Amino acid sequence: MKKLLAFSAVALLLAACSGQDKTNTAAASAASAPPATAGNDLLARIDNKGTITVGTEGTYAPFTYHDESGKLTGYDVEVTRAVAAKLGFTVDFKETQWDAMLAGLKAGRFDVVANQVSLTTPERQATFDKSADYSYSGPMALNRVGEKTFAGVADIKGQSAAQTLSSNYGEMAVANGAKVVPVDGMAQALTLVQQKRADLTLNDSLALLDYLKKNPQSGLQVAWRADSDGKLGAGFIVNKGNDKALAKISAAVEELRKDGTLKKLGEEFFGEDVSQK
C-alpha cells in the first residue's frame, strides 16, 4: 500500500528502514489490547450514511499529515474521503500514535484504520481483516542520475549501499553482497549517495517516490525496484466480523481504481499510480 504503496502497503506492503518499520510494536500493542465491543454496527452506519470513525496518524507524510494550512491530508486520507463519497457516509478522523492505533481499533475506539497497514503477521491476521488494497509498495534502490541501473537486486553486489544496519533494507543489502555504509536514516543515506560517498540506497518504494516527487532536482534516479511478487498491499483495516461492511468498502476501492481516482491521487502524492501491483 503505512501504505502490502506504498518497491513492501505497499505494507509490503512491506516494512522499511528506520521510521518505516512499524510492524513489531503495532502487533504487540494489538495483541495486548482488550477485545472489541460486540455488536459492531459498522454496516448499519454505512448503509444509513452515518459517521465512520477512522484511526490515522496525521504525522506520516505523504500518507497522513497536515498541510501548511493545517488541513489533514495525504494519500490514505484522500482515499478514505473518496470511499466515503462513493458510499455516502461521513468520516470522523481520529489521530493517534501508531503504537496505539491497532489496539484502539481492537478496543472499538475506531471503526476503521487507514494508515498504510498490511496484515503481514499471524497476530494481525487473527484479529483484523483488510479491504481491497489501495496502494502497493516494495523495495527500491536509488542511485545517481547517469549511473547504471540494475535488472535485479542481486546486481548490487560489490556496490556500496548507505543503510541503517538494523533495518530489513540493510539486511537486504548485506544478503546481496553490497558493502554497507552505516547511516542513521533515509535522509542521511540519500545525502551520502548524492555526495558520492555511497553508490546507492535501498528503501521502501513509496517513501523514495515521495522524495523524488518533492525533490525533482535531487540528481538521483530509480536504479531498481521490486516486481509485483516483491510488493505488499495496504488497505483499510477493520476488526473481524465486519465482512459485509468490508465488502462494501472494497467495492468502493475497486470503483475508484476503475474510474481513475486512485491513479490521480497516486500521481498527486507520488508522481505515479501506486494502486497497481
From TrEMBL:
UniProt-listed Gene3D superfamilies: Periplasmic binding protein-like II
User: Listed GO cellular component terms?
Assistant: cell envelope
Q: Which Pfam families match?
A: SBP_bac_3 (PF00497)
Query: Which PROSITE patterns does its entry note?
Result: PROKAR_LIPOPROTEIN, SBP_BACTERIAL_3
Predominant location category: other
Q: What's this protein's family per the entry?
A: Belongs to the bacterial solute-binding protein 3 family.
Question: Could you tell me what this protein is called?
Answer: Transporter substrate-binding domain-containing protein
Q: Which organism is it from?
A: Paralysiella testudinis
